[in-house]
Amino acid sequence: MKYLKFPFQVIKNTFLNSSIQSRIILFFLTFIFLFSIAVIEYIHFYFKKKLIEKLENDLQNLVEISYNSVIETFSQMDQGIISYEKAIEILKKRFNGPIESLQIILNKDINNSLIQFFNILDIKINTTDISIIKEDNKIKAILIESLGNQNIFIFNYNRDQILLQFPTNLAEIIYYKFINSTSKTQEEIINKYKIRFIRNINKASIKIGKDGYVYIIQSYNPEWLLPNTKFPDDYTLEKIRERFSNHFKGHFNSNEDYKNYLNTFGKTPEEQYQYINNYMHSKKKNPDPAIAIVHPYFEFVNLDNVNYKNIYPVRHIVIQKNGFYRYPWKNPVDNKIRTKVAYLKHFEYHNYNQNLHINWVIGIGAYEDESYFIVNQIRKNLYIIFFIFIFFVIFLYYYFIRLNLIKPLNEVIEGMKKVNEGNYKIRLKVYWKDEIAYIASTFNFMVRSIRKKNKELENYANNLKEMVENQTKQLKETILEINQLKEIQDGDYYLTSLLLKQLGQNLVHSENVKIEFFVKQIKEFEFRNKRGEIGGDICIARTIFLREHPYIFFLNADAMGKSMQGAAGSLILGSVMESILERTIQAFIFKNYSPERWLKNSFMELKHIFESFHGSMGATMVMGLIDENTGTMYYINAEHPPGILYRNQNALFFHPDFHFQRLGITEESENKEIIYIQTFSLLNDDIIIFGSDGKDDIKLKNGNINHDEYLILNIIEECEADLEKIYRKMIEIGELTDDLSLLKIHFNSKKVHKINKHDKLYFLKLKKEFKLNPEKHINDLINFYKNNPNFTPCLKLIIQYYASRKEFTLLYNYAINYFELKPADNTVLYLIFYSLYQNKHFDKAIEFGERYYLRNPTNVNLLVQLAECYFKINQFARSEYLIEKALNLEPENEKIKRFIKKLKQSDRN
Questions:
Q1: Any alpha helices (H) in 285-372, and if so which ranges?
Q2: Contact 881, 870 (CB under 8 A)
Q3: Beta strand pairing status for 530-534 and 323-329?
Q4: Alpha helices, DSSP H only, in 292-334?
Q5: Which of 47, 54, 200, 288 is the most exposed place for a label (fewest CB within 10 A)?
Q6: What is the mean pLDDT of residues 546-552?
Q7: What is the spatial distance between Cα 297 and Cα 693, in angstroms, rounded to a whole number?
């Protein structure tokens, strides 16, 4: 440690002894450097992930298209329209294009080897037909006149062998001769000449990227593959040990089968693991086949032992059969290893005569880096721009610091030196209205006060009478100053009111949601013939985008205290909220939050700011987000009066309307509130009104304060929710005793989804029949939904059907569509999470589970399942936090205790 202490001490002393300018520049550059790198890398990571997901979707879609094409082709074969051979040829042309060329390997005796090759294919040529083309005394090509005037190109393969590449016409002739020959002849040609047909994938109907093509490989099952397992995931040493510890539960129907398995493949995990390794790396004479049925480069070739550094991709493909498979690969022309991603689908077929059995794996693969190549280029360009920007900022910032900080500070220091020398006539220049300017002004005031006191003492000593006269004159001046202070106070009120107006703005521009404010502060003032008002009520509304989806933010708050104290609370609340909104608009990470998470984070930030005042400042408020398209409202009420719904000319309070503690109340650590988000679905033409206490605290004309909480409902109904009319009605009834603020939300969607009367009657009939016999009428219900995709009652029945049958993939597909139309439905939100959880899509499940948790944080089942999702992706800290929450709610739950035990075991490992 003593060797590390010395350089650290040197850096510390250098930094502390350097100038303020150097320290500020160093801090600023370090911050902007780290921040910019983080932003660039995050952007790169995000878009790279999105492009890889798009590539995976494209691969999956193309394999599905290919799969359907295979089914369609074999359907024609079943009907007798085409033969099996014709079906294979159709698939090869469709997926990999027509024959482009052919390659074979011969020995140095070209003429005889070539004649033998053609003789095997029953194509007769003579030595005299063969012409050799040379260039610079090197053989470049061969011309066979009897087979057309097309060159057969020659490549040096190695010292003893040459590689021949045939043109298209000759390749097609040889191809049809080859496939019509006997299997023995085909095997001879493959083994002796290493024949390889090459197709033109650019003319294929289905392809992706530069070299992505559809291929079909003959599948097989190795003898050691257990039921309910898959390779290679379940054949690591850890997985084998786990099966041994569970006594292979679920794999064998009888104890005898279990014993035979151990005797054959090994009685310990290590023996079985060694057996599998030996099997996979064996060079058997007749290994399990992985024949390329359809492939642009490897037709009729056994690819079982094709590998890169002992990774056998084709072998893994035919074992896995379905889903995505990633593997590293390096072609001879490549300089580095690249990752390939492939999507696979298993196809099995028996014809009607049962004399043809097909067991294929259909797949398509592409290089991952090609999908996000453009993102890598953008990242490089961003770094170049960033370093140019840094250089420019250093240049400008240097002069900015000198002008705004160093020069004024030096003048302050020089002034202090002169005062120490007894010069009280010094006066500093005040350049700007900032902190240093405040120091300079205070310094001038201090020097002026010292000079004044010195003069007063001198006068007092010289002439007492003159001093009395001066005191009288000073008293008059004091009275004048008091009047001036009154004007200054009114000026402060005026400036504060301007700030409040600037913060409390309605910046909503929406076709579906209209926001209106009405604010009347109780404290009024006059400043230079300008009348104004000041108080603690504030309203804010603004449009923001979360996940590229428009939301209307609204806030209505009432800060504690009268006039300046209340205004100070509103200024703090409005300023913090303005910062949060601007941060959301500017920063990508906050735009990607769900509405629940954004709302809770914003509320907690406001809560922490007010708690820092230790009870000297507080506020009640309601804040929320409205989905502009669906009318779903997410909101939090912090001890603010309940909202009022005006629907069908009737006004009523929200019931129940849960209230959290007001801002500014410091909570004890054991007594912390559970903050969660409430939701409400607005119907078309609904109006919501939020207001402060001022709407209820009316001093009636009889002198009493109003205690009827339902009075405001009657006023709203009478005034038809018009804010100006509501205020005038209040003034008629009595006198305001507190600040008044009203915030009105009017949802009037231009897109109202309705179905016609005929369809509605048909659905009611179908609903009754479906409840009697769901299996019979589920397809009718799905067809009705396809014709009416926005009719949620139908979609809800389909969701209930698949939920009851635990068909989680279909349940997710329909539930996510419903959730887009009705985001406030907590039941469907949980079903989306649960279906992803059951299908082991843990990353996506976490997203919806967290949203449900923010709405209902006391659901124990959700907490346990969400904790398990985090456990599966190795985020143990979050998993432990959630399971402890569940344990606090149900301390005796055995399932929770078992999960905690598993968590502790993972920590030890």
A1: 313-320, 368-371
A2: no
A3: unpaired
A4: 313-320
A5: 54
A6: 90
A7: 79
